[in-house]
Structure formats: C-alpha cells, structure tokens
Amino acid sequence: MSIQKKKILLGVTGSIAAYKVGDVIRRLRDKGHEVTVVMTKEAQEFITPLTFAGLTANKVYTQIFQDPDSGAMAHIKLGTESDIFLIVPATANIIAKLAHGLADDLLTCIAITTKAKILVAPAMNVEMYENKIVQENCKKLASHGFKFIEPAHGKLACGVTGMGHLAEVDEIIKAVEMG
C-alpha cells in the first residue's frame, strides 16, 4: 500500500522535548512528505530556526508579519496550503491558548484559520498534564476535531517518572500517515 505524500506544517512550542522534532522531520522527509516549520518565541529558547531550516530545506516561520513584502499573510497561506498541522511538542500553554481561541502568535493564528487536520502531541510535566484544567482543555479541543497523539509514561526532564513524556517518534509518524 502506498502512503500519500502530504504537506505538513509542523508547529514547535517551548518545551525541552523540542530537541526530538529534528528526528520527526527527518523521518517525515524520508517518507517523502514536505515539511514546513512554524515556531513560537518560546520554542526558539530551546532550538534555533536555522536547525529546522536545514532539516526541512524550507523557510522556518517565527512571526506573524515575517514576510510583509510578499503580500501573503503567512497565517492564512501556511494553513491553507497544508494537509496536516502537527504541533510537536504541545505545551500546556499552547493547548490552553488553542482551547480558548487565543491567537497571539503565528502558530495560534494558523490553528484558528486552517482547514487542515490538526494533530497535537503534548509534552509536559506529569503534574501539568494531569491538571484538571489541562485535561478539560484537551477534551475541548478534541470536541472541535483536534486529534491527540497521547504522551507516554516515562522519565521527564524534571527527573520524575510519569505521564507527559512526548510520544515516541514512531507513534507521531504513524499518526501523521493515518492522517
């Protein structure tokens, strides 16, 4: 069975798990998918746009008005040209913003304008992930058609073991291909 090649917009947020996104990109490209990255300001504290530009062979988007001379509105163009909007890692902050319709950066603006399927792979501390408000926000997004790639139980950056570890790259790739 042949896998349909997709245009994937990959949203990266401010989590230590951002270092795993390079492997996600490599694996998606190995399967023939086109990947374009959009990063939050917080994500850039963990990894640079240059890294993702090199891995994707595409421009990396970090600001709403990044290309004012092009005449294109990035938050509309990127969302309409993508088959899947994959958010990896998704922090409690970005999940809350999306659940409440906040659009204060490029990633959240794309999320409220795109017609693409949105896949969300949370990664955060177990206390954050199990918080009732975070869980309510996830349920709210799921009720609006967002698909979640559930985190794993594992050792977290803070040293504790619990739910909130970013899903394995294989699971993320499988979710994209099932798309």
Strands, helices and their partners?
Layout: E1 7-12, H1 21-30, E2 34-39, H2 49-56, E3 60-61, H3 74-80, E4 84-90, H4 92-99, H5 106-113, E5 117-122, H6 126-129, H7 132-143, E6 147-148, E7 152-155, E8 161-165, H8 169-178
Parallel strand pairs: 1-2, 1-4, 2-3, 4-5, 5-6
Antiparallel strand pairs: 7-8
Helix pairs in contact: 1-2, 1-8, 3-5, 4-7
Your description of this structure?
It is a single chain. The chain is α/β, with parallel strands linked by helices and 179 residues long. The protein has one domain: 3-Layer(aba) Sandwich (Rossmann fold). It is built from 8 helices and 8 strands; from the N terminus they run βαβαβαβααβααβββα. Strands 3-2-1-4-5-6 form a 6-stranded parallel sheet, sandwiched between helices. Strands 7-8 form a two-stranded antiparallel ribbon. The protein is globular, with a radius of gyration of 15 Å. The mean pLDDT is 92.
Strands, total number: 8
CATH A-level architecture:
3-Layer(aba) Sandwich
Oligomeric state of shown chains: single chain
At the fold tier of CATH, the topology name is: Rossmann fold
Strand order of the largest sheet: 3-2-1-4-5-6
State the CATH class. Answer: Alpha Beta
CA radius of gyration: 15 Å
Ends distance: 15 Å
Strand content: 15-25%
Q: Order of helices and strands, N to C?
A: EHEHEHEHHEHHEEEH
Structural class: alpha/beta
Count up the domains.
1
Q: Quick one: CATH superfamily? A: Flavin prenyltransferase-like
